[in-house]
Design a protein that fits this description.
The structure is a single chain. The protein is an alpha/beta fold and 203 residues long. The protein has two domains: 101 residues, 3-Layer(aba) Sandwich (Rossmann fold), CATH 3.40.50; 97 residues, Formyl transferase, N-terminal domain (Rossmann fold, 3-Layer(aba) Sandwich). 35% of the residues lie in helices and 25% in strands. Strands 3-2-1-4-5-6-7 form a seven-stranded mixed sheet. Strands 8-9 form a two-stranded antiparallel sheet. β4, α4 and β5 form a beta-alpha-beta unit. The mean pLDDT is 97. Bound molecules: 5-O-phosphono-beta-D-ribofuranosylamine. The site of 5-O-phosphono-beta-D-ribofuranosylamine has 14 residues, from α1, β5 and α6.
């Protein structure tokens, strides 16, 4: 059984989508062993507990980044977690943390990277006037919103859109993309050459 963990800081809709996919069998033979939030008031913590999933709050405020990361890593290692899914985790990871879990940390970002990294990506894309945006699930490396891309989904920007309607349509695609990306990574049926992730050729 694959053991997943989710790191979040807020609403938790991507967490819920992943948990739903596991329940529905769209992600097979997996469980969410632990949800970790750096914020006590994250709605995702309440959502996890309601579903009977262990959710821990490890406050980050005022802590040196690596110290906080060491606390989180200790829990993940104790629980033998195989994959760490960042889902609205509003905290930069230290290089130390990233090095502990090579190719085991995934992130979702609400733009077609490398366009619009960082905060408020949907607003950035809308203000820039792009006609297509979307979302990206990628491996985490030591740079922000940067590692090899696993899945991307495109979303048209409509004339009638505002930042909110665009963000809502991107979010629908995020929920689909994360499940696809987790399945690819758990299958192990891929190779990464440089930045490029491709499916393993079938024999
Ligand atoms: C999502 O838009 C995700 O792409 C970004 O933060 C947001 C988290 O939303 N990294 P939720 O907490 O999963 O609902």
């Amino acid at each position: 059984m694959h053991s997943l963990s989710i790191l979040l800081s807020g609403r938790g809709s991507n967490f819920v989508a992943i948990a739903d996919s596991i329940e529905a069998g769209r992600i097979a033979d997996a469980r969410i062993s632990v949800v970790i939030s750096n914020r006590a008031d994250a709605l995702g913590v309440a959502a996890a507990r309601k579903r009977g999933i262990d959710a821990l709050v490890i406050p980050s405020k005022g802590k040196v980044r690596e110290q906080h990361d060491r606390e989180v890593a200790a829990i993940l290692q104790q629980r033998g977690v195989e994959l760490i899914c960042l889902a609205g985790y509003m905290r930069l990871l230290s290089p130390w943390f990233v090095q502990q879990f090579p190719r085991k940390i995934l992130n979702i970002h609400p733009s077609l990277l490398p366009a619009f990294p960082g905060l408020e990506a949907q607003e950035q894309a809308f203000a820039y006037g792009v006609k297509v945006s979307g979302c990206t699930v990628h491996f985490v490396d030591e740079e922000l919103d940067h590692g090899p891309i696993i899945v991307q989904k495109a979303v048209q920007v409509l004339d009638a859109d505002n930042e909110r309607t665009l963000a809502a349509r991107i979010l629908e695609q995020e929920h689909i993309a994360y499940t696809e990306a987790i399945n690819i990574v758990l299958s192990g049926e891929f190779e990464v050459t440089g930045r490029r992730l491709v499916g393993k050729p079938s024999l």
